[in-house]
């Protein structure tokens, strides 16, 4: 038998108590799940995140960590779905687009991955990791000049960014090999003028 409320104040009070209990329960479940996640107990952590989302479907941290956990277990389609949900919940959160970009890259959706990194960078212009990973995608797309620029930006933000230096060096070598091939076969140079930076040293002194 359902309770009959006599006035709106009582209704609001009951709803508030229910929400508080749900919030407390979901917080406790989430904290347990996070602890297990950090210990590498993925299956148990996943089950607890699912319980949290049953109580609070829009629990942003549970959505995000479910995506991260899914990616760690190489279930990239599931991770993509969670990260898209995270973006729905917080459309101005750069990290959500970054995470989505990583997963889309793993799924071979290179154009979508690039767009996701572009959005992360638009929201957070100093996001060095986003520039670096966008450079990786551009490299795979054979947009070598654009890749160099993205790596350079990452390095300008983090001067000792080893991975960015390394991958930029690989692209620089590819550009040099392309130039040699074009000269051998007497083809017109098609490298864009704004890519003259490929002659610069790979590492600064």
Automatic annotation (TrEMBL):
Annotated region (Disordered) at: 1-23
What does the UniProt keyword field contain? Answer: Repeat, TPR repeat
Could you tell me which residues the TPR repeats occupy?
26-59, 60-93, 94-127, 128-161
Q: Which PROSITE patterns match?
A: TPR, TPR_REGION
Instruction: Please report a single Pfam family linked to this protein.
Output: TPR_16
Which InterPro entries does the annotation name?
Answer: TPR-like_helical_dom_sf, TPR_rpt, Ycf3
What SUPFAM superfamilies does the entry give?
A: TPR-like
Upper lineage: Bacteria, Pseudomonadati, Thermodesulfobacteriota, Syntrophia, Syntrophales
Kindly provide the name given to this protein in its UniProt entry: Tetratricopeptide repeat-containing protein
Which ranges are annotated Polar residues under compositional bias?
1-16
Q: Give the PANTHER family listed for this entry.
A: TETRATRICOPEPTIDE REPEAT PROTEIN 6 (PTHR44858), UDP-N-ACETYLGLUCOSAMINE--PEPTIDE N-ACETYLGLUCOSAMINYLTRANSFERASE SPINDLY-RELATED (PTHR44858:SF1)
């Amino acid at each position: 038998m359902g309770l009959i409320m006599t006035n709106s104040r009582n209704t609001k009070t009951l709803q508030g108590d229910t929400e508080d209990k749900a919030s407390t329960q979901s917080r406790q479940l989430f904290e347990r799940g996070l602890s297990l996640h950090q210990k590498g107990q993925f299956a148990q952590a996943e089950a607890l995140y699912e319980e949290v989302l049953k109580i609070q479907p829009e629990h942003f941290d549970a959505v995000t960590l479910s995506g991260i956990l899914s990616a760690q277990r190489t279930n990239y389609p599931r991770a993509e779905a969670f990260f898209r949900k995270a973006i729905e919940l917080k459309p101005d959160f750069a990290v959500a687009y970054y995470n989505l970009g990583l997963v889309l890259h793993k799924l071979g959706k290179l154009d979508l991955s690039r767009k996701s990194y572009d959005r992360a960078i638009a929201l957070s212009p100093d996001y060095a990791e986003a520039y670096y990973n966008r450079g990786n995608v551009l490299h795979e797309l054979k947009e070598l000049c654009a890749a160099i620029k993205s790596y350079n930006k990452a390095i300008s933000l983090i001067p000792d960014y080893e991975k960015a230096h390394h991958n930029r060096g690989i692209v620089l070598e590819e550009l040099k090999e392309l130039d040699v091939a074009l000269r051998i076969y007497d083809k017109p140079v098609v490298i864009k003028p704004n890519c003259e930076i490929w002659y610069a040293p790979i590492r600064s002194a």
